[in-house]
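Annex B, item 7. Sequence and C-alpha cells for protein A, then protein B.
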Amino acid sequence: MLIRFSVPFCSPAAARPLPLTFHRAFDMVHDPAVALETLVSLGFERVLTSGCDSSALEGLPVIKRLIDQAKGRIIVMPGGGITERNLQRILEGSGAEEFHCSARSSRDSAMKFRNTCVTMGATISAPEYGLKVADVSKVRSLNAIAKNTL
C-alpha cells in the first residue's frame, strides 16, 4: 500500500523521502499556471486541485490546461465533488491518470442520548447525529470506472 501525505505549505525537502501532494489550497491562487511552476520548482510530486472552481467538473478546463502544462513534471490530480456519475467525464476531459475523492456515504450516529433542543451548527438538521464514512461499494465502483476509462 502506498501512503501519500497531502500537506499545504510544507517544503518537500522537510518530508523526504516521502512524496508530497500540495493540497487544494492551490485552488485559491491568483494564477494557477504560475503556481504550478512554483510547485514544480519546489519538488512537489503532485497537486490536488478542483481547477480553481467549486468542483473538479466545473474546473475541468483549468485542470486540462494544467495537465498539459505539467508535461509529466508534476501530477495534476483532480479532486472535489468527484462521484460515480462524473468520474469518467472528468478523466476523459482532463487526461488525468489519478483522482481524489472521499467516496463517502452518510450513516446514523450510534449516540444513544440525543438532545433535540440543541443543534451545534447553524443548520436546521442535526449533523452531530450523523457520520460520513468511507463507502467500500463506492470505492469499488469508482475504481472500476477508472480502470475502464484509463
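Protein B:
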Amino acid sequence: MSYTEPHWHHSVLITIDTQNDFTLPGAPAEIPGTMDVIPAMVELLEAYRAQGLPIVHVVRLYEENGSNVDLCRRALIENGARVAAPESPGAQLVAELLPAGAGPMQSAALLRGELQPAGDREWIVYKPRWGAFYETGLDAFLRELNVDTVVFIGCNFPNCPRTSIYEASERDYRAVMVKDAMSQVYEKGIQELSAIGVNVLAKDEVLAILNDLN
C-alpha cells in the first residue's frame, strides 16, 4: 500500500498567489516565469472543472498600512509600495484562471477569513503568510469536501507553494506538485519534495490521468 499515492477522485487543485501584481509583465512584484506557466495552469483548471473536482485559489492581500504583512516585507509596504492591495486591480487573480462569470475578489470578506465562491465547486481563500494552511480554514474545508489529495500549481515555488506543500504533508494529505505549472521551480527543490513523498508530475501526466477518470 502506498500512503502517498494520489487519490485523484478525492483531490483538489490549488492555485497559489497567481495574482496580477505577481504575474503580469511589468507588475510591481512580478515573479519571472509566472506568466509563462499560465497556459499550463489554465489547461489543468479546465480539466478539473470538466471532472467536477474542487478548485481553490489561494491569494495574498497586503493592507496598505502594512498591518497584515510579513515582517520581511512590512517596511516595503509601509514606505509606500502598493502590492496586492485590497480591492486593487493588482490583487485580482489573473483573469484567464477564473471560470466564465466569476466576479472580482471581495477583499473585505476574504480578510475576515470567509471563502469566496468563484464558480461551481471553486473558491478563493486568503492566506496571511506563506503557507495556505496557516491561520486559514482551508484544512477544515477540505476535510468537509472529503479531499485527501492536494495538487499545487501557481506562483513562486521557493516561497508560498513550497511552504504550502510542506504544510499539506504534515497534515497527512497526499501531495502533488505540477512542476511545469509553477514558476521558479528548481531541481534541488524537486529532489527535496520527492524525498518526503510528494508526487512531482508534469502537466501532461496529470491531464492524462484526469482524462482517464470515470
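Comment on protein B: The radius of gyration is 16 Å.
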